[in-house]
Design brief:
Elements lengths: L7 E5 L3 H12 L3 E6 L15 E4 L1 H8 L4 H5 L3 E3 L1 E5 L5 E5 L8 E5 H14 L3 E5 L3 E5 L4 E4 L4 E3 L2 E4 L6 H8 L4 E5 L3 E8 L14 E4 L6 E6 L5 E8 H6 L3 H11 L3 H4 L3 H7 L3 E2 L2 E5 L2 E2 L2 E3 L2 H4 L8 H18 L4 H33 L3 H17 L6 H7 L4 H31 L1
Parallel strand pairs: 1-2, 1-12, 2-8, 5-15, 12-21
Antiparallel strand pairs: 3-7, 4-7, 5-6, 9-10, 10-11, 13-19, 14-17, 14-18, 15-16, 16-17, 20-21
Helix pairs in contact: 1-4, 1-11, 2-11, 11-12, 12-15
Bound molecules: flavin-adenine dinucleotide.
């Protein structure tokens, strides 16, 4: 057994939130051991799943606080808005914001993970152990057991082990937390839009590309630094399972995503080769017990449609670090405050993410929906910070999610009231 001092933490999971949290803690003088179930991602071959992530304001703020933002931005592509593909050659463009800085950044998850591990490991107080997953936990005693036989005692144990968290599972097994998991009957396939033969991008690079799918799924594509795109096609499971031959896939893409055939010369083969990914929403309560606490997807996995899973996970690190600093001598209080400050907001994020799925899938083509978005942007342009579209508050500011939703509802009510008054006043004015 090892690691008895007060400022010693064990982090389970060397993914995005675990690696960033290690760096936060080390900078505050903690000694940190990170245990990761998989092998070292820096040594693995380049093959494997290639999810891209959209980094937005709150994620950037959390990276900037440990001096990593510039390094991350250097490996990412700015996305200034959405390009909507509706079948024909014309793309509809919707800017993300009204100001130059209102931009998201696309980065490969694997690249970002390697960068975070590199920086955390460079700190002398951080040690990574790969290939050793958590197997059991005694939350009352603060003892964690890992594959390979390591048994570690630590005052602080952080579960950063993703949506299917073993730490959360152990807390549940001990009757200390309850979890509800929503798995929609939708899955996804990852596909690639490679660069053109001359190395240029086949479609405008600096944006998120969206194919609303017309009742047959939804596809999005994030740009990569070398002028390729990683596309993700979301579909109901029953439709995914039917698409299991070359003819079926080619016919499906030609019918519902016609321009992708030219954009993805290897699309059909990739489809048949790549596994189906699954979506999950996790709601769990409480997030902590004594010195054990959950962060990131382990506490609150959400659908990826608002692009906030990683961003909110990074924000967890920032807030947990602040709580540990405020209550340096009282760990249970720090963890309780962290949960109080975060949980109600990530619960709202789960709802927003589910709602954004419906928006992207069903509403993006609707002229009314687009007009409504335009009205929001025009009002924001005219009124500045007095009128902030929900998307702006969530992605370009770090307004807490529940506050952002409340404010958006109030703005909606104001707009409807003004419209109602206009409808009543107009005939009266015309009659005068
Ligand atoms: P993870 O990144 O999943 O890391 C968990 C780590 O724990 C892994 O390394 C895993 O191997 C390890 N682990 C698991 N079990 C154990 C164990 N027993 N012992 C030790 N280690 C263990 N978010 C955004 O902000 N923007 C986006 O645009 C976006 N797009 C997405 C698109 C898709 C298709 C998907 C699926 C997700 C997307 N996300 C996005 C969400 C984002 O990927 C997650 O929110 C983020 O990865 C969460 O980080 P994490 O560190 O909590 O979990």
């Amino acid at each position: 057994m090892s690691g008895q001092s007060d400022r010693y933490a064990v982090i389970v999971g060397a993914g995005l939130s675990g690696s960033l949290m290690a760096l936060y803690l080390a900078r505050r003088g903690w000694r940190v051991d990170v245990y990761e179930r998989r092998g070292d991602p820096r040594l693995a071959s380049a093959e494997g799943r290639s999810i891209n992530l959209g980094l937005s304001a709150r994620g950037m703020r959390a990276l900037a606080a440990v001096g990593l933002l510039d390094a991350v931005l250097a490996r990412s592509v700015p996305m200034r808005g959405r390009y909507i593909h509706t079948g024909g050659p014309e793309l509809a463009y919707q800017p993300y914001g009204t100001r130059a800085g209102e931009v998201l950044y696309s980065i490969l998850r694997a690249d970002l993970n390697r960068l975070l591990i590199d920086h955390a490991e460079a700190h002398p107080a951080v040690r990574f152990t790969f290939g050793q997953g958590l197997t059991a936990l005694e939350p009352e005693k603060g003892i964690a057991y890992f594959q390979g036989g390591a048994t570690v005692h630590a005052p602080l144990i952080i579960g950063a082990d993703g949506a299917n968290s073993a730490v959360r599972g152990q807390l549940e097994q001990h009757g200390l937390t309850t979890t509800s998991i929503t798995v929609p009957d939708w899955g996804y396939k990852e596909l690639t839009i490679p660069p053109a033969d001359d190395g240029s991008a086949r479609t405008p690079l600096e944006g998120l590309h969206v194919w609303p799918g017309g009742g047959h799924g939804l596809m999005v594509a994030h740009p990569n630094v070398e002028n390729s795109f990683t596309a993700t096609l979301f579909l109901p499971e029953r439709e995914l399972s039917r698409l299991d031959t070359r003819e079926a896939v080619a016919g499906f893409l030609a019918a519902y995503y016609p321009d992708t055939l030219a954009l993805m010369p290897d699309g059909v083969d990739e489809w048949l080769r790549h596994p189906v990914g699954h979506l999950i929403t996790v709601r769990t309560r409480p997030w902590h017990h004594k010195g054990v606490v959950l962060i990131g997807d382990a506490a609150h996995a959400v659908y990826p449609f608002y692009g906030q899973g990683m961003n909110s996970s990074f924000e967890d690190c920032l807030v947990l670090d602040q709580c540990l600093t405020r209550h340096a001598a009282d760990l249970p209080r720090a963890l309780a405050e962290y949960e109080r400050l975060r949980k109600r907001h990530t619960d709202v994020l789960a709802e927003l993410s589910e709602r954004n799925f419906v928006e992207l899938r069903d509403k993006l083509r609707s002229p009314w929906f687009r007009l409504r978005k335009q009205v929001d942007l025009v009002l924001h342009r005219l009124l500045g910070p007095v009128w902030l579209p929900l998307y702006t508050m969530v992605s370009h500011r770090a307004v807490p999610y529940a506050t952002a939703r409340l404010r958006a509802r109030l703005q909606e009510l104001t707009l409807l009231t003004l419209l109602g008054l206009a409808v009543i006043a107009l005939p009266l004015l015309l009659l005068r």
